[in-house]
Each structure stands twice: as structure tokens, then as C-alpha cells.
Design brief:
Blueprint (H helix, E strand, L loop, with lengths): L7 E6 L2 H11 L6 E7 L16 H14 L3 H6 L19 H7 L3 H4 L9 H7 L4 E7 L15 E2 L7 E2 L18 E2 L6 E2 L19 E8 L2 E7 L14 H4 L5 H6 L3 E6 L8 H7 L6
Parallel strand pairs: 1-2, 2-3, 3-10
Antiparallel strand pairs: 4-5, 6-7, 8-9
Helix pairs in contact: 1-6
């Protein structure tokens, strides 16, 4: 379209954000997308059928299909959510797990460049050309499981308990927006409020602490927890991020290093966003 020849912006809601990202990555020679704003989207997949996928009858049918085989050709061709279902655990009855996802899921493995022998550099080049990527996560989202998928975070393979972070925590807190504000040792009551200092420099390593719970209080919409059993906090304890980010399959890390990714957390359940948050987090990227 001539009207879009100089570029345009996309706002995607939930699975619509995946379609928007598909336009960015898959459409060769298309008008450039400047800003992609993603609201409560399953960017890294979901571990179950979304709870609000229609009425009671639709949910019942959807979950039955899930149990019968989300990665079957029948389900993949007929039920949109199966295109981004990513089951981290092995379901023995139907042999569905990450291997099944990579082999038979039609949409998300391609979009995220997850197949080791079929990664397309063009997808990464197009995605990393965005001027801004705005990732908005609902803090109490019960539809996207895990909710961190809205930030490209996801469960560790084989688990539905440990969520891998969507981005790298740097050895120096100056390069990214994980700037420490306040750290609290809830066991001994120690306290540190020194900006731009990593936690290991805020505490005396000789302090006898049996269990140290370190929390980075909310900053730029993000919370970060870590547990140490010996009182020595090191960078390695924070480096539990996804391979998609570490190996930069789609250019997310490149965008982030350039300061073009905004990780935003808002209160509420799936797709709940206030007028004030809309004006603050979305409208500026449409102008």
C-alpha cells in the first residue's frame, strides 16, 4: 500500500501480536514496521489452552483436542491456539513435549526460529530492524501461562515451575535497564540502596547468612528474585535466561542491547490496561 510505504506501527493484542510479528518477519519486501507494541501476547508460547478461548463449549472442545494431541495435523489446521502451544513436560499418553512441539507445531517454532537446522537469518534481520519493541505483560494474567511469555520468558524444558527470564542480566548493571534500586536480605535485615552497583558489592561476603533472598524491587516494570544458600551472591545466579535470547535466534538480544526493547508490567488480568497506561506506554509509539 502506498500509504504505508514510509513505514507504520502495529499494536497487537494477545495472539494478534504473533500475527503482527509474523508480518514483520515473514513478509519480504513489505513496507517497514517501525514500532511493534505487543500487549499480553504468548510470544514464547503457552503451556495450556487459553482459559478465555470462547465460551464453555469452546473451552471444553479445545481442551479435549489438547488431550487428544495438540500437535496432530487435525488440531494444527483447525485450532489457532495449537499453533503456539509449547508443552514443556512429557505427556506420556500422547508423547507430547518439546520434541513434538519442534517437529509438528506449525507456527511458533518457525516464528521464533527455534528449529536448529532450519533457522532463517532473514527473520532475524527483519525483526531486529524494528525501531522499538514494546512488550507489555499483565501482572495477574491467568490466560497466558506462564505470564512471562509476554516478555519472551518461558518454562525450562521439562518443568512448569522454573521460568527462564526473557533477557540477559549483565555483569555490569550500567548497560541495560536492570539498574538496582534496593536490595534486601530478608534473613539478616541488611539493606542496600546504591544505584548502579551489583549485589555482590553491596554486601560483605563474610556476613554469615544461611539463606539470602535477594529481590530487585520494581524498576522499569520488572522484578527479579534470586536465592543463595551460602550468602555469596554472584552474577551466575541471575543468568537463567532463554536460549532464544542468549543465542539471539530472532534478534531480540540485538534489539535489547541497542536499547530498543521496552519490558513493561501492568496490573490486572489478561489484556486489562487502563487509559492512563494506554496513554503512557502505547500512544507515544504511534506518533
Amino acid at each position: 500500500m502506498k500509504e504505508l510505504s514510509k513505514g507504520y506501527n502495529i499494536v497487537g493484542l494477545s495472539q494478534g501480536s504473533l500475527i503482527g510479528r509474523g508480518i514483520v518477519e515473514f513478509c519480504e519486501g513489505a513496507p517497514p514496521v517501525r514500532n511493534l507494541i505487543s500487549v499480553a501476547a504468548p510470544q514464547a508460547g503457552v503451556a495450556s489452552i487459553p482459559l478465555n478461548a470462547g465460551g464453555t463449549t469452546v473451552r471444553t472442545i479445545a481442551n479435549s483436542i489438547m488431550k487428544a494431541g495438540a500437535y496432530s495435523d487435525y488440531a494444527q489446521k483447525r485450532f489457532a491456539p495449537t499453533g503456539y502451544i509449547k508443552l514443556p513436560k512429557l505427556y506420556i499418553l500422547f508423547w507430547q513435549n518439546i520434541k513434538g512441539y519442534l517437529k509438528s507445531c506449525k507456527f511458533l517454532p518457525k516464528l521464533n526460529n527455534e528449529r536448529p537446522n532450519d533457522r532463517n537469518p532473514a527473520y532475524k534481520k527483519r525483526f531486529s530492524s524494528l525501531k522499538n519493541l514494546v512488550l507489555i505483560m499483565n501482572e495477574n494474567d491467568t490466560t497466558i501461562r506462564p505470564k512471562e511469555s509476554s516478555w519472551f520468558g518461558y518454562y525450562e524444558d521439562g518443568s512448569t515451575k522454573k521460568v527462564l527470564q526473557p533477557r540477559e542480566v549483565p555483569s555490569s548493571c550500567n548497560s541495560l535497564s536492570y539498574t538496582p534500586k534496593v536490595y534486601i536480605d530478608f534473613t539478616s535485615g541488611l539493606y542496600c540502596s546504591q544505584k548502579n552497583r551489583f549485589i555482590s558489592s553491596c554486601f560483605n561476603n563474610s556476613t554469615p547468612v544461611s539463606l539470602l533472598l535477594v529481590r530487585q524491587l520494581r524498576h522499569d516494570g520488572h522484578m527479579l528474585d534470586s536465592v543463595s544458600t551460602n550468602g555469596n551472591v554472584t552474577n551466575s545466579q541471575f543468568n537463567l535466561q532463554t536460549k532464544l535470547y542468549m543465542e539471539d535466534w530472532i534478534g531480540l538480544k540485538k534489539l535489547d542491547k541497542a536499547g530498543r526493547v521496552k519490558f513493561i508490567k501492568v496490573e490486572g488480568n489478561h489484556l486489562q490496561i487502563s487509559g492512563a497506561e494506554l496513554l503512557h506506554y502505547i500512544i507515544p509509539y504511534l506518533q
